[in-house]
Amino acid sequence: MSRAFVSEDSADVNLDDAPELKIPIPPGSRNYLAPEGEAALVAKLGRLETLIQPLVQGYQRGSIGASVRVCDSQGGVLLYRIVVVDEARQEEGLIGWTSPIARGLMGKTKGSTISIQLPESSLSLTILEIT
Question: Is residue 20 part of a domain?
């Protein structure tokens, strides 16, 4: 049937009347795990641990959250912290990951020299430290 002939005002299904889903195991009860389920959880835990390692050990490469100390071509030392776009405040050294400088720093390591093309000029930076 075409939608043109269906009344929009008459709701056959009321979402408020949907049954509440019950958790099959009461809180505080034991929940046994098959070996396959354990292996899947251990693998997932391993992936999560690799994600949080940079927070514990510091950053090895330029990435969101990293503070990067650089030296420009005139010998000036600058400190940038790569952040998400909503947190960017260039005057405080917080640069959004989408900015040309942050994109140039992403994935680079200590000692790397990068050339960044800005709208009006180019910028050469050497990475001194990443924390």
Answer: no
Length of the chain: 131
- Distance, in Å, from the CA atom of 46 to the CA atom of 40, rounded to the nearest integer, reads 10
- pLDDT digits 0-9 by tens, 49-79: 776 655 556 788 999 999 999 999 999 999 9
User: How many domains are contained in the chain?
Assistant: 1
In a domain, 82, yes or no: yes
Is 76 among the domain residues?
yes
**Dist CA 11 CA 2 (whole Å):** 17
Distance, in Å, from the CA atom of 92 to the CA atom of 111, rounded to the nearest integer, reads 24
Report the predicted TM-score, pTM, of the whole model to 2 decimal places.
0.57
In which domain, by residue range, is 99 found?
67-130
Residue 1 lies in a domain: no
List the CATH number of the domain containing 100.
3.10.50.30
CB-count exposure of residue 74 (10 Å: 0-12, 13-18, 19+): exposed
